[in-house]
Each structure stands twice: as C-alpha cells, then as structure tokens.
Amino acid sequence: MSLWAMVLLGMALGVDAFSACLGIGFGGISRRRALCLVGSVAAFHVLMPLAGWWLGQTVGALLGRVAGVVGAALLFIIGARMIYAAVRTSIPGAACFLLPGSLGLLCFSASVSVDALSVGFALGVHRFGLLLVILTIGLVAGLMAALGLGLGRTVGAWVGHRAQFIGGVILLCVGLRLLS
Fold first, then answer.
1. How confident is the prediction for the chain on average, in pLDDT?
2. Of 43, 60, 153, 167, which one's alpha carbon is 20 to 30 angstroms from that of 144?
3. What is the per-residue burial (b if ≥16 Cβ within 10 Å, else e) of 72-82?
4. What is the DSSP string of 26-84?
5. Which of these ranges, 41-55, 71-85, 93-107, has the smallest mean pLDDT?
6. What does the alpha-carbon distance between residue 120 and residue 60 come to, in Å, rounded to a whole number?
7. How far apart are CA 134 and CA 73, in angstroms?
8. Which candidate, 24, 131, 151, 147, places its Cα nearest to that of 85?
C-alpha cells in the first residue's frame, strides 16, 4: 500500500472525528482538553484497526454495530446539550459539552473511530504492513480532529453565540450518520 493510499484511508476514517470536533470547537474547548481529545482520537484510530485485525470478522461486526449505536447516542447527548445551552444561556458550565473526565474523552474517541475496527480486519486479510498503516491512520485522524477543533473555534468566534447551536446540530447530524 502506498503512502498516499494510507493517507487517504486515514482521511476517510478521520472524517467523523473532523466533523464531530468541528461541532465541539464551535462551542469552545480549553487547549488542554483539546490536546487530550486529539491524542485520544489518534490513539483510538490506532487501537481500533489493531483490535479489528485480531478480533476477526464476526466479533468485529457485532462489536462495531453496538459501538456505533453507543457512539451515535453519545453524539446526540453532546449535541442536545449544546443546543440546550445555546437556547438557555444561563446554564453554568455550558461550554463543556463533552462528558466530564477521561471516560467522556474515551467514549467520544471510540465513537468516532469505530469504523476503523472493520478496516483493521480488512487490512489483516490483505496482509498489508499493519504497523505503518495504523500509525498513518492514527496520525492523519488526529490531525483531522485538531483541524476540526481549530476551525470550529475560529468560526465559532465569528458566529458568536449561535455557534453553540450550529455545533449541536452538526453533532446530531454526525450521530445520525453513525447510525446508517
């Protein structure tokens, strides 16, 4: 597999992370939390293909669907919180839309990287060099998450208070996409 093919694969798998992070960036996120989020997304985009490689098609398909539904639900919750906060500006701490703590970061990162599970299985079947491919996927997906957060923050500053509402709608749409 060529380097361009690996980068394109990473971009295809990083689209969910980009879209969801764009929505989160609209609402605002601290730099520290953003760095943790980007690192977590990148790590999951390495771990999920590795898990898919080992789990095989049957277990991977079952786990992938369950994780996809949980991921979609998580994005719905985050999106709904953002929309609610945009409508009711007096909510204390309304700018923190991810679930608090490390568990929230892990759940979010797993939800946007679950499609990489089945890719890992396919890579194992075709006997590509696993380590280089999954590291490239993780790097590209992490960069896409960072780009989404940065772009969301920038556009959010221009749009102002409506950015929270727009970000919430984006997350709801990403959640719907995960269900299909």
1. 76
2. 60
3. bebbbbbbebb
4. HH---HHHHHHHHHHHHHHHHHHHHHHHHH-HHHHHHHHHHHHHHHHHHHHHHHHHHHH
5. 93-107
6. 9
7. 26
8. 24
Read off the pLDDT of each residue in 107-134 and give the average, rounded to a whole number: 73
For the chain, how many residues are written? Answer: 180
* 113: confidence class by pLDDT, cuts 50, 70, 90: confident
The reported pLDDT for the residue numbered 6 is 81
For 154, the 3-state DSSP assignment is helix
* pLDDT mean over 6-35: 84
> What pLDDT does 92 receive?
43
Dihedral angle sign, alpha carbons of residues 31, 33, 36, 37: negative
Cα–Cα distance measured from residue 67 to residue 76, given in angstroms and rounded to the nearest whole number: 14
**What is the rounded distance in angstroms from the CA atom of residue 2 to the CA atom of residue 64?**
27
Question: How much is the average pLDDT of 144-173?
Answer: 78
What is the rounded end-to-end Cα distance, in angstroms, of the chain?
28
| Angle, CA 21 vertex, CA 117 and CA 161 arms, to 5° | 155
CB-based contact 129:5 (threshold 8 Å): no
Distance separating alpha carbons of residues 3 and 78, to the nearest angstrom = 35
Q: How far apart are CA 65 and CA 36, in angstroms?
A: 26
